[in-house]
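Journal club prep — side note

Before the paper discussion, L.F. wants everyone to see what a predicted structure for a comparable chain looks like in token form. Sequence:
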Amino acid sequence: MPDTRNLMVRQLAYFVPDMAAAAAAHSARFGSGPFFILRHVALARSTHRGVLRRFDHSSAYGQWGDVMVEFVQQHGDEPSAMHDLYPAGSGRFGLHHVAVFVESLDAAIAEFEAQDCPLAQLSERPDGMRFAFADASASLGHMIELYEPSEALTGFYAMVRGAAQDWDGENVLRELGG
């Protein structure tokens, strides 16, 4: 089994009603950013609690000091890992997950499940990149997002971090394609 101790937190992610507004407000308050907006993140499939479900969401990604910060909004009321913590229609929002890189996604899912953090959701993008939410809410109050660090993923993290270096605070919100 992989060692899930000492995993570096790569990202803090907040579930919000409007990711662009949340990103702009966070930037104004804390100087984070710039934020890269990806609307209706393309997924090939998503399984929530063992059931194939639609997971239509948009995200804004920016740098906040040494960590990436993400603001996620879900479009629709379908069951999801987001709505596990913040039920649709509840008006509740907040920290949803921390993201970590793992050597093997399947092995990490098994290790987290063995530690009473069951798989809440497993999603796959059209390019084959998968991510999972391990439900650590009983012990930590939030989910843990698991990724294998592919070249595309680490390149995206590097792009967001690089944009923050010497950023002048202008053009806070920047649209990304699919």
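L.F.'s comment for the group: DSSP finds four helices and eleven strands in the chain. Keep this in mind when we get to the figures.
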